[in-house]
Amino acid sequence: MTHRAATRSATRFARWFSVTTAPEAHRPRPVRAAHCARAAGAETRRAARGSVAAILAAVGLAGLSGCGAGLPDDVAACDYVSREHRLALDVPEGWQVRESRGAACLFLAPPGPLPPGAGVIVTVESAGPIQTLDELVQVDLLRVQALRGYTHLDEGERTLADGHKAATLTFEHSATGERVRQRQLMVLAGGQAYTVTATATPPEAFADRADAFEIVFRSFRAAW
Description:
About 20% of the residues lie in helices and about 35% in strands. It is of the alpha+beta class. The protein has one domain: 3-Layer(aba) Sandwich (Protein Transport Mog1p, Chain A). Strand 2 (about 35) and strand 3 (about 40-45) form a beta hairpin.
C-alpha cells in the first residue's frame, strides 16, 4: 500500500460501518453460487459452509451460467472472485462483503450491529516504481510509522496458496482517536500492489477475530 492509501481506506471503512441504514441498492444481498456482478466484472459465490452477504454499489446480481469459465480451478473455488482486480479470497462464514470503486476496492465485516469493531479492507494500486516486495514494505513502514501512537508488533513473510510471496506487518496506532490493531498482508504481483488489512478495535478484540482474519489471508490469491 503506497502513500496515504491505507489512511484513506481506514477512513472509508469507518465511514461505511458508521452508517446504520444503507440505501436500498447498498443493502446486503444473499450471494448465490455461479452468480456474477456483470457490470463490475466481479464474482461472488456461496460456499457450502455458510451464506455470504454482498453489498454491491449500483450493481445488480445477474444469474449467468459458466461464471467460472477461464478461471484457474483454485481461483474459481474461492468464495469471492474479482476479474477486474484479479483477486480471489474466501469469506468468513456470515460476513458481509462490499465492493467499492477506487484503490480500496473491497470491504468485509462480521455480522452484527454497526460498527462491528473489526473488518478487512483490500486495496489494489499500481505498483508504479516499486519493483520488489521489500520496497513495498519499506514504503508502507514509512507511512505507518508516522501514525499517531504507532507501536510495532511484528513483521514477517509467508507464501500464499497461489505461490506468491507476501509480507506481513502487525502494529497498533491511535490515528483515529481510538486504539486500533491492524495486520497487513502485502503482495506485489502483475504490476499491482495488493494490501489486505485486518482491523480490530479495541486491540484486545483482534484475538477474537484472528481465525476469521486468517481465513482471508491464507486464501488470498492475486494476479492470477
